[in-house]
Write a structure and sequence with these properties.
Blueprint: E1 5-17, E2 22-25, E3 33-36, E4 62-76, E5 86-92, E6 105-113, E7 119-129, H1 138-143, E8 151-156, E9 182-192, E10 194-197, E11 203-206, E12 219-222, E13 224-227, E14 233-237, E15 245-248, H2 251-258
Antiparallel strand pairs: 1-2, 1-3, 1-4, 4-5, 5-8, 6-7, 6-9, 8-9, 10-11, 12-15, 13-14
Length: 265
């Protein structure tokens, strides 16, 4: 497997001639220089605070004093694409190693900003389906790399944002300019597993609350509500009484039971 990790550094530095005279420093404004290992740092990159002034001859020795402020790993979540990358930086690690996928529904807090820091869209406890997507193409791709409780920032190129066209303002959301790079903050609060089960994969199961593993038996006690697609209930059992109702599984329901844990919804 290709290692897609990238190192992101933040440093303070001073650049001096050998006589001690200062020609550049991040200490003056207190803002460290942030860069990715492998990017051009000093010497020839025009406009970079670490660049050497033109009035210093190329054969003249200079001195840089560098203090490492932070070193974090960012990941290219599109590991099969070296050019059009989505870089992800984990701010807070989540629980366990299991990640949402496929047909799962996820609940997130998010804030999408432009490079200048202006927020174009933000909300709390938004629920969406990973297969259907949300906001921009990068959004579900980033969430699929996260565990429950994780917080991360993804740097999204225009190809995975809104491309050359951008996006006009919409309701309370600001416009996204053409060819804009987006900074997407996401906290994965929770997710609901959705799978196809049964013969021919004709049963669609959505887990609302995880339960505990129990021994598979033919007789179960449950509470149940049956609804049509429009939400109208056509059957309800075990809810109007304190005790769940008990029944023996037939062959058709055994598959559903085998995928269900005690206390699960």
């Amino acid at each position: 497997m290709i290692d897609t990790s990238i190192w992101l550094l933040a440093v303070h530095f001073t650049g001096k001639r050998l006589d001690g005279s200062l020609f550049t420093s991040t200490r003056e404004d207190g803002v460290p220089l942030t860069f990715i290992i492998g990017q051009e740092f000093a010497g020839t990159k025009s406009g970079c605070r670490a660049s050497i002034p033109e009035n210093i001859p190329l054969d003249q020795a200079v001195r840089f004093d560098i203090e490492l402020i932070s070193l974090v790993t960012v990941t290219n979540i599109l590991d099969d694409n070296e050019d059009e990358v989505i870089l992800k930086k984990t701010i807070k690690h989540g629980m366990g190693n299991v990640k949402p996928c496929g047909l799962d529904d996820v609940i997130v807090d998010y804030n999408v900003c432009l490079e200048n820091g202006m927020s174009v869209s933000m909300s709390d406890s938004v629920e969406f389906n990973l297969q259907k997507g949300f906001f921009c193409p990068a959004f579900p791709l980033a969430v699929k790399t996260m565990t429950e409780g994780e917080e991360a920032v993804s740097i999204v190129k225009p190809e995975y944002g809104f491309g050359e066209q951008g996006r006009p303002s919409k309701g309370n959301e600001a416009a996204v300019p053409p060819d804009a790079t987006l900074y997407v903050y996401i906290q994965l609060k929770s997710y609901k597993t959705m799978i196809h089960i049964g013969e021919g994969q004709t049963i669609f199961k959505k887990t609302l609350r995880k339960g505990e593993c129990v021994e598979n038996q033919g007789v179960v006690r449950v509470r149940m509500i049956g609804k049509l697609q429009d939400g109208v209930a056509f059957d309800q059992r075990g809810h109007k009484t304190d005790e769940p109702f008990e029944f023996e599984l037939d062959e058709g329901l055994q598959q559903s039971k085998r995928t269900t844990r005690g206390g699960e919804w």
